């Protein structure tokens, strides 16, 4: 083998007994680490070709069999250059907000959540449309930037779940673990090789948990760290591993154990104690990190009888993109991109509300109806509402709507 092909060369893959090169997990992050260590050429299995091609700063040699590798090492002959498959399309063409009948509050809350990155709790009876709304939130989120897409691909590569999405899909991921998922399944871990959990797989996307009160003890509370920091740290004897986990959390819950405590609640068979105990499974510290709490009532006959469809995801996404552009211009040169990420100190100095709006929140704080953290959460949501409405600063109307959404009041 010529010396020029031996220098700075790394091999990644699994070798089968018959000489075939099998795909492995974590190719993209491994290549990034290899490049930072000085390697310039990598030989990878053909099955990992699309993923490896994302590392454009290295010379990628993708081969299906060991004999092809030996042939290349002797002659330098290789297959054609791999084309990167950039994909921006809906995660499922069947999912669109136009399918959601009625539910104006749920629609508005989803739009606000997608615009500002605000965490959302949907409360309503079975069949009201909570899951339909949550599953469609990625369809109104802007396309991922290239750097974000690479981060998402790296996490899914480590987890071995790239078969579920294109190697470089620009669609925001949605991960929906079952309510019986364990703490390890939610945040990551493992006895030997550490595997990313649902919160990391939802990085730059949506983590949707249906039947949230049914989750096991401590499972939801384990999300408190990533909700605050955007990362999750897994401790082992050999050291700590920090994985990215900046996601939009969407929780869905029935209003009571039987699920019928809505409207006048005439069909509900639960006692008041059972209702309080059921929703009490969502801890106070977790709920304090939720920006939007919306009650979803069953769809009425008027909404079901309408011939016209509601707004499509494409129309809503245009508003989301426009509002995010306003926020991006406001945050130019600052280390955050979404209203939900504005630090408390910046809310008190650079990004203040109008005086009348601030007085309203201070009055609610004095009456002990909201906490200091709640005041800051409401302020961030108010900024998102202002961006969607075209206001230069949040006014009292924006703050009052944010307050209603934060406290779960139905307007």
Automatic annotation (TrEMBL):
GO molecular function: ATP binding; DNA binding
Pfam families noted in UniProt: ChlI (PF13541), Mg_chelatase (PF01078), Mg_chelatase_C (PF13335)
Record-linked InterPro entries: AAA+_ATPase, CHLI-like, MCM_dom, Mg_chelat-rel, Mg_chelat-rel_C, Mg_chelatse_chII-like_cat_dom, P-loop_NTPase, Ribosomal_Su5_D2-typ_SF
Keywords linked to the UniProt accession: ATP-binding, Nucleotide-binding
Record family assignment: Belongs to the Mg-chelatase subunits D/I family. ComM subfamily.
NCBIfam families, alphabetized: YifB family Mg chelatase-like AAA ATPase
Name of the protein in question: Unannotated protein
The species this protein was found in: freshwater metagenome
